[in-house]
Write a structure and sequence with these properties.
heterodimer; A: alpha+beta; 6 strands; about 20% strand; elongated; B: mainly alpha; 8 helices
């Protein structure tokens, strides 16, 4: 008799557990569905603002829907693709004014560093395509040591260092040995940070590689249909 | 063992402060207090999760079977944390993006599960609501204080005009030491009375 009692109690308990679980999932799913569109819009707005700020400082204008003018690059060794690296194409009156490449520096101190590189293309002499601006969008670097380029944290201090990349190209400096931090080469173009060399070096190398990538594949980039995923 | 409303308030803020006395939730306490803004935001989220979970479980306590209670507690806590995340992403995406993983980690905060087990499961909804509020507030006060100290001493952001390279308090060992001093100071004040 008591065994049956226990079994009934157990069944009842499990039943309650399942009901609570189902209710929890239903409520959370409902909240998700109610806000899905708003959150997507927020994400897009956020992304749009990031890209806009990247180009704003150099007076680069664009009038196209930049979030839709994107191609995805997979498995590229210059960009160190994890999944797909997005490349955004900014146009004014149907002429390309900027190409924004998201690249990854795999050799940060604590792992991958995502860098957005905005390039002003020079289709007559590709090597002269200049960097407009760069932004660190994701990193795990040590706070206070390796995160000095995080402009969301350090505002002006970060931007002063990121400015060093402005107007640089494969032609300027021409010597690939100068495309590093001053600690490695006193003629280098990028300042090192006190107490942290690995991070600025990783970022500099990644930016350099993105320029090489653009030089190699610019034809394919501007001719690929938008929203396509390509292996380059 | 019936607690008065007054004692619930005093316990949450001082005598049973989750961070300084019960030593619950030390992991998020130290991880999140790297800046004032992070500490304050996540403190508020913790208050919301703790209060809502306490209230709901105190209401449902007669239905929840004893030996299945822990999974059910965690289920409900995770549900509220997810609702918090969704709400924040919809209302202020910037803040949500900056907090990253920390919001989701409130689910693993022992202060929440501990309070539910120790209080909400055994008390009236009204008292559980107050307890959640006060414990959360006590936790948040420590968070804000730690966050402020660590940010000011390290001068990582615009909170200080000082430009120093003194990193110790932003790193984990420094955080532990500040917390230790805080606990010692609280005990000293308690002893005087």
């Amino acid at each position: 008799m008591s065994n049956l009692n226990i079994e009934h109690k157990t069944n009842k308990s499990i039943f309650i557990f399942i009901i609570i679980a189902i209710l929890t999932v239903l409520i959370v799913t409902l909240a998700y569905l109610l806000t899905k569109n708003k959150i997507e819009n927020n994400k897009d707005t956020y992304q749009r603002i990031v890209l806009d700020n990247l180009l704003k400082t150099s007076d680069i204008k664009f009038d196209n829907n930049i979030l839709d003018s994107v191609i995805y690059v997979k498995n590229n060794k210059y960009l160190h693709s994890v999944n797909y690296n997005p490349i955004f194409i900014a146009k004014k009156e149907n002429k390309i004014t900027a190409v924004i490449i998201e690249t990854i520096a795999p050799d940060g101190y604590n792992g991958n560093i995502n860098v957005l590189v905005a390039i002003s293309p020079n289709f007559i002499n590709i090597k002269e395509s200049k960097i407009i601006n760069i932004k660190i969008t994701n990193h795990e670097e040590t706070p206070g040591l390796g995160d000095k380029a995080d402009e969301d944290k350090y505002y002006d201090k970060a931007i002063n260092w990121l400015k060093l990349f402005h107007d640089k190209s494969l032609d300027n400096p021409n010597d690939h040995k100068k495309w590093t931090v001053k600690k490695d080469n006193k003629d280098a173009i990028i300042d090192s940070w006190t107490g942290a060399t690995i991070t600025p070096r990783a970022i500099t190398k990644a930016v350099y590689k993105s320029l090489i990538f653009f030089e190699k594949h610019h034809e394919k980039i501007i001719h690929t249909k938008y929203k396509q995923k390509v292996t380059l | 063992m019936s607690k008065t409303y007054k004692s619930i308030i005093k316990d949450g803020l001082w005598y049973k402060n989750p961070g300084l006395v019960q030593f619950l939730g030390l992991c998020p306490l130290l991880a999140v207090s790297t800046s004032f803004k992070n500490g304050a935001t996540l403190g508020i989220a913790t208050i919301i999760v703790l209060t809502c979970s306490n209230l709901l479980i105190a209401i449902l306590k007669n239905i929840i079977p004893f030996y299945l209670r822990i999974p059910i507690f965690v289920l409900i806590i995770a549900g509220f944390v997810t609702l918090c995340q969704i709400t924040l992403a919809a209302v202020n995406y910037n803040l949500y993006h900056n907090l990253g993983l920390f919001l989701a980690l409130i689910t693993t905060n022992c202060a929440v599960l501990g309070r539910i087990e120790a209080f909400a499961y055994k008390n009236t909804p009204r008292k559980a609501l107050l307890d959640g509020l006060m414990q959360g507030l006590g936790f948040t006060l420590v968070l804000i204080f730690l966050g402020f100290i660590r940010e000011v001493f390290t001068s990582t952001t615009k909170l200080t005009p000082v430009d120093s390279e003194f990193l110790f308090f932003i790193l984990p060992p420094g955080a532990f030491i500040i917390l230790g001093f805080l606990i010692a100071f609280k005990n000293y004040l308690g002893q005087k009375n």
